[in-house]
Every structure is written in C-alpha cells, then in structure tokens.
Amino acid sequence: MAGRGKRKPKSSPQTETPNGEVKKAKESQRDEKTAVTGEMRDEVEKMYKLRMPDDFFQFWEFCKGLNADCPQDALKETLGLRLVGPFDILSKRHKSSSSSQPNFHLHWRYFYDPPEFQTIIQGNVDIQHHMGYFRDLPDALPVFIGENEAKKGCTITQMGDNIFAAVLLFLQKKRKERGQLKNEAALDQLEEDLKQEAERFDLPLEQKTKAMKQRERKVVTKTFHGAGIVVPVDKNDVGYRELPETDASLKKICKAIAEAKNDEERMKAFAPIQEMITFVQFANDECDYGMGYELGIDLFCYGSHMSCVDKSCSQLFCTCFKAQILEEA
C-alpha cells in the first residue's frame, strides 16, 4: 500500500488553543447588539445540545426585518433560500411536532453531512443545496459556514465564518453565474442590507477569514469532503497517523465494493478496508485515534449503501468518540 504523504509538519502542536476561541471573545461584545432573548437562545441550545453563535440570532432578527410574518422565507423570493434546522426552534415549529421527542441531531441532516455539520439554510431542492455551521468540536462555536449539494456529492465549500458572509457570497455567486437578473434591484438592496448589518455587528465578510486560515494549519487531512478534520495532536506528534492509501486508491476500493455483483465479490473488494481497520486498531493502541476518524469520514462520505461499509463507519466513529478524539484541539 502506498502512503498518503499528507501529514502536517510537527512544527505547530495542536493542543494550544481551542477552535472558536478567537470568535468566542468577540461574541460577548456582540451579545448586547442582538434582540433575541436569553430564553430563546437557551431553547435552541437545549434542543440541539450545541452552542450557537450570535450571528445565528442576529440573522434571525435581520430576516424578521425583511419578513415579519415569516422570517424563515425572507430570502426565498430573492435567493431561493429558506432558514431551516435550528431556525425551526426560533419560529416555534417544534411545538407542533408529531413526535414528543424529535431527534434534532438528525433534523435537516442530508445524506453526506458529517457529524461536524449542522444545516441552517436550505437552497435548491433539486440538487439538495444547503448551508450549515461546521464545528471541529461539539462543545465549541462553529469554525465556518459550509455549503454542500448532496445530489452532486460530498464536497463541502467554505463560505465565511458567519451567516451574513455566507448569504452575501451566495448572492454574489448567483449574480455572477446568471448575469443580469429580473430582480436585480431587490438583490442590490439585499446586498447593501447584508453589508450594513455585518458592519454593525463587526462580522467579517471574507470567504476565508484569518481564523479560518489559522485552522487550516491544524487540519491533519482534507478527507473526501475537502473541509478537513482537526484532531488533537500533542507535541510528540501523537494523535494522528496517515492512512496507508491515497484518496484516489481508497475511492477505487470503495467503488469496487459498491459495484460488486455478489457477496463473494463484495467481500473480496472489502479486504483492503478490513486490512486498514486492522491498522487503525494498532494506531488506537498507540493513541493515534485520528487515523480511524479519517477512515470513518472517508467511508461515510463515499456514500455507499453497502451494509459492511455502514457498519465499519459506525464502529470507527464510536471508537474515536469514546476515546474523546474531539477534545479541545
């Protein structure tokens, strides 16, 4: 098996600063500027068991200003976007749920969404376009807004570190792709409003902020979805080791499994994966839990419906999470 050659240099240990810390310092300064009550904030975080950044609540207030009757549809006519996921809590839609205990961890989760991804905006339903917060750590603030078109694949595109930036970037991309639009005046007004609100809340509008660039130094591997994973690696370089296959060769293995005509062919095609899982077990024994997490993410992102692959993903994820792989990095 050929090595990936993707390992990062040892020069910058990844245990110094938790992801989201820079953003966290700014959140307290912005808190007084948002009109969302503490009760509403607590309700969302209670349901999702995730900390929500202030731009989430600020954007809700912004959309209420555009459409007081239905803030979730405030961007539907101009951009074809709809606020979903945790915004359903702010609109109290969960109160009318048929289930007494709805699973919010699966609420608006698309086929390729990894555990780090939380959908907040729905786009074109034909291509299953959506945007969401991406967290490296479950108890930290998001590190960026990701965009995915599930009908096309697992690729996650980074769209800034707040919703205002993500929607503005989407607006500008839409205008560039389609040229002159019928609702040009409405788009101009929306673009101006987004920029003004972002300035008021001191929110950056770049597609890749300084904090996002700093995160890239901590990414141990890009994975199939391209957004990368961050795992704890100490000063002795313990925490992650490379998979013994390149991305290209691993995809070929997954393709062979998915296209196998019978169980015998499928098990034969699965043999290289089983060998890698054995290597992962050795890595786990030496506390390099990141290797198993990477393999789990890649198998998950490939999207095969084969039960042997699904079971392997589940086992790899469970082992990593139980080993607290997503502790502060």
From TrEMBL:
Residues 1-39 are annotated as: Disordered. InterPro entries: HPF1 (IPR019361). Residues 21-39 have a biased composition (Basic and acidic residues). GO terms for cellular component: chromosome; nucleus. One of its GO terms (biological process) is DNA damage response. It is found in: Chromosome; Nucleus. The keyword Nucleus applies. Residues 1-10 have a biased composition (Basic residues). This is UPF0609 C4orf27-like protein.
